[in-house]
Every structure is written in C-alpha cells, then in structure tokens.
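This follows on from our talk about sequence and fold. Please put the record directly below this note.
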Amino acid sequence: MRRLVGHAMTTALEKPVRLPEPPTDREVTPEELLANPQWGRCELVNGRVVLMSPAGYRHGWIGARLLLRVGQYAEANKLGAVCNADTGFRFPDGRTVRAPDVMFVSQARLPADALEDGYLPASPDLAVEVVSPDDPFKEVAAKAESYLAVGVRLVWVVEPHERRVYIFRPGRDVERVDSSGTLSGEDVIPGFELAVAALFE
C-alpha cells in the first residue's frame, strides 16, 4: 500500500522518460482512472488519485501465498472468485476505487458481467492487506474500517514484522491472531482454515 509521489521509466539507453501523471487540481472519476494505465498502479480516494509503489519481496510473497491458498480453496468448492492487487473495486460513493492485496468475492456478489473490463462494482466479501515496512498501522487499520463501511464482511491485515494477523469484522472489536493461531474463513469462506505460521515459513 506504499505511496509513490512521482514515477518514471528508463529506456534501453537508460534515459529517464517522464510518464504522464494524474491531475492534482481536480477530481478524477473511476472511468478516467481506468482509462489511464500510464499513471501506474493507483487507487482512487474521494476523487483523488493515490499512486502506489511496487511492494517489497516479502510483502508480495505473503500476498501471493494467501492468494494461492484462498484461491485454490474457493475454486475447488465453487465459492466465488479470488483476485490480486491489480483488481480494483468501486465504493458506492462513485469517487473511490480500492485494490486490496487479495480479495475474495462470493458467487452471490459476483455480477453477471464480472469478466468484462472495468472495476468490480460490488464490495468483496473478504479483503486482505499486507502491511509494508513504511505503512503506519493506523492508516492500514483505517483502510480496513473503510472496507467494512461499504459492506466487506471480513478483513485480514497481515503484519509481517509482528508475524500476526489482525481480523476486522463489522460491529466487533479487532482480533489479533499470533503465529501460533489459525485463520478461519468463518461464514465468509466456509471451511477454510490456514495456520498463521504458514504465511511466514
């Protein structure tokens, strides 16, 4: 979830080429964000573009392990779809698009045109955020709460340095699961379980 102020690319001759950047003097719509991939990996928050820097190895590795485990289980049991951080979902306000590191969308929430181009118009059932070294935890926790506010049923915030996972649920206190514990899909992904330690092995 780390932010990047500006971005550039290099050519084969190693000459930096400045890529177009999103406007900062006005709001941007989800459609405009989708139509401008040259801005790089972005999220949209209240109409403002937030640029995201590439994640470090451990961040990506943990996210990929969760994507694989949840994805295999969901597909084998025909429960829904699992997507990575390249996939955005639209908030009901029409001004926000978020892209969790991993998200699961149940069959009941998948729209008929889900495979068409465009952001997911529904909130996922599960969203996962992996904390990067320079992410203030309060900021990630606020993001998790914003997911719950738009209908996400379960949020896992993975803290690699602490080797634990924080579980956010609507109307309940945040639960902390240490590396000796187990993650449960609860009624969101029925029957799914994963030892927290397995994320860091």
Observations:
- Residues 8-51 form one domain.
- The chain has three helices and 14 strands.
